[in-house]
Amino acid sequence: MKGTGTHCCLVSEQLIPNIIPLLDLKTRPRQVELLIPGDMQSAARPILRLCRELGISVQQHAVSAWNSDVIRDVLHQLLSDYAKSPISLNVSGGFRLLALEAYKAFSDQGREIFFIDTRHDRRVMLFPELVQDALPNVLNIRSFLTAYGCTLGAHSKGYLNREERSLTEQLVGDLKKRGKSYCHLNWYAQEALAELRTEMASSHLRSMDFLELLQLFKAAGFLDWDSQMGTLYFPDEDSRFYANGGWLQQHVLCVLNKLRPAVDVGDLAANARVHDAGNLSSEVDVMFTARNRLFLIECRTKNADADTMAAGEAINTLQSLANALGGAYVKTMFISYRPLKRAHSNRCRQYGVQLVQGSEFDKLPSLLRQWIESA
Question: Around Cβ 326, how many Cβ atoms within 10 Å?
Fold first, then answer.
């Protein structure tokens, strides 16, 4: 299948199988003919928008999803218009009757018919002969969001400097040893949100474990403190955010970067704002693409007992965003280095959110790889 002719696409709620061939430079057509059932106008808009961005010409054809006579008339006229020109059928989308009628009409005239098998990451030529090849990973974060009417706002690229990597690795290695001290620092960093400074309890300043943790952060340039006054200072918001649990995001990014060659991780974004068509926004701790799917991760370092409402809201928000962004093509994970309450664990299970918590944190690299490969 070459990207020089025209694709006929059957519009349905599943956008990704129609979008992948448009993004793949090897198969991108010059023109697209969209067959749009009456109630699928809204589903067609993302395809139209993407075609405009890619410079692909588009023609729209209203068609019934259930009336065979109407479907055949539309297909007959379409194929008559291409009597002397190449046109291929992407039979991946569409309702069953529409797909069957389209397959018959195209095969009767000896036209190419192909199917995008996203479950097994392959492109299957169905007619005139059966040929399969692997799907390239062509969906990036922006194209995925654009397909569902959203835009990517402020975000970081997920690149760590040497100091951040070194400190993050040490923090993760000392996690079991300094668990309580991490909670204290996390709390103080939250309290410093407004002025980048806060007062620390004298009992904490008498803890050698807590003081050693502060010294680690100070050596990396993330904070300083006045031992006489008990005041904790952060040089900037990025440093405060890192101490407030941002180190867990950085650890996830480190793991994903190491996994990149093995599982074909695409682009990464951290602390990302996602805006929908109504300009409502959601924040995602870590998001990335792989295997033409979008992966969303929420990272939590707060005590679930003290932050029970926020944890529940975070799970709800994560799954609501996934549902708005393609459902089956979006995978979600909730990572908490502290165990969640049973109610929150059950909610993750109910929503299909992969949960990594407590003692499972040590196995994060293998769990992330399994999650991506099984998506």
Answer: 20
Q: What is the pLDDT of residue 306?
A: 54
Q: Which of 323, 250, 233 is nearest to 286 (CA)?
A: 250
Mean pLDDT in runs of 10 for the chain (375 residues)? 78 91 93 94 90 94 93 97 95 89 97 94 95 93 87 80 83 84 92 95 94 94 92 95 91 92 90 84 93 94 65 88 86 91 92 91 93 92
Q: How far apart are CA 104 and CA 288, in angstroms?
A: 39
* Exposure letters 28-58 (e unless 16+ CB within 10 A, then b): bbebbbbbbbeebeebbebbbebbeeeebee
**Residue 3 in 3-state DSSP?**
coil
DSSP state letter for 156: B
Q: Which residues contact 85 (CB under 8 A, 6 or more apart)?
A: 5, 6
Measure the CA angle with vertex 59, ends 53 and 64; round to 5°. Answer: 125
Q: What is the three-class DSSP state of 268?
A: strand
Q: Where are the alpha helices (DSSP H) in the chain?
A: 16-23, 41-54, 68-81, 96-108, 141-147, 162-173, 179-191, 202-205, 208-219, 237-241, 247-263, 308-324, 342-351, 364-373
pTM of the model: 0.89
Q: Are 291 and 137 in contact (CB under 8 A)?
A: yes
Residues 6 or more apart whose CB falls under 8 angstroms from that of 152 comprise: 141, 142, 145, 269, 272, 273, 274, 275
Task: Determine the pLDDT at residue 115.
Answer: 96
